[in-house]
């Protein structure tokens, strides 16, 4: 009687160690491996971040909240986050308002970097470029391009996001509803319609 083979691609790959020829070496190797604590799982099995920063106006995805370096900075509208560009491994698609592919990201996902200009900040003279949301055009903060003082150059290449211009969301609370899923399968999904529906639901974190 023939049986249906189990699809092996559903199983995670198991790392195998090279077999030793010496029996004494094999015995000591087994004892060592059994007594040592289990190693951490491979990185590809690690669940992705579930908390995100989004534009407060149009709810466009910006970056995982794990990219926040400090919450103690000050922007033009009050408190601000200092963030670093997200790595490719943290960029995945939690919802239809998705991140851009890493190859298309020039700084932060779904943002536009404007022309650099000198600006006097609390910590001294800097050269910064404003960044705005590509979804609605709202200015979200700025990118540090250069700093006059050596002690401030650690911020170069990093970004300021105004806390009044972004919202923090959790992925499990942002799953698309049935209507949105139907639109996706039918090939008629619209970003504007999805944003309107979500605003009407009032399900923002």
UniProtKB/TrEMBL annotation:
Keywords: Metal-binding, Zinc. The keyword Cytoplasm does not apply. This is Yippee-domain-containing protein. The lineage of its organism: Eukaryota, Fungi, Dikarya, Ascomycota, Pezizomycotina. Residues 51-170 form the Yippee domain. Residues 17-50 are annotated as: Disordered. GO terms for molecular function: metal ion binding. PANTHER family: PROTEIN YIPPEE-LIKE CG15309-RELATED. Belongs to the yippee family. Residues 22-50 have a biased composition (Low complexity).
């Amino acid at each position: 009687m023939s049986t249906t083979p189990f699809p092996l691609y559903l199983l995670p790959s198991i790392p195998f160690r090279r077999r030793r020829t010496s029996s004494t070496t094999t015995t000591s190797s087994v004892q060592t491996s059994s007594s040592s604590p289990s190693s951490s799982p491979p990185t590809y099995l690690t669940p992705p971040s579930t908390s995100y920063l989004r534009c407060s106006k149009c709810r466009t995805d910006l970056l995982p909240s794990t990219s926040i370096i400090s919450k103690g900075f000050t922007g033009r509208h009050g408190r601000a986050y200092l963030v670093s560009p997200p790595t490719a491994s943290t960029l995945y698609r939690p919802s239809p308002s998705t991140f851009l592919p890493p190859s298309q990201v020039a700084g932060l996902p779904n943002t536009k970097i404007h022309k650099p200009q000198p600006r006097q900040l609390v910590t001294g003279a800097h050269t910064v470029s404003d960044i705005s949301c590509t979804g609605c055009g709202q200015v979200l903060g700025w990118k540090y391009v250069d700093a006059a003082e050596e002690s401030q150059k650690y911020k170069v290449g990093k970004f300021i996001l105004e806390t009044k211009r972004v919202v923090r969301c959790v992925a499990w609370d942002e799953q698309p509803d049935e209507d949105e899923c139907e639109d996706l399968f039918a090939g008629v999904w619209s970003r504007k319609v999805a944003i309107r529906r979500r605003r009407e639901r009032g399900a923002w974190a």
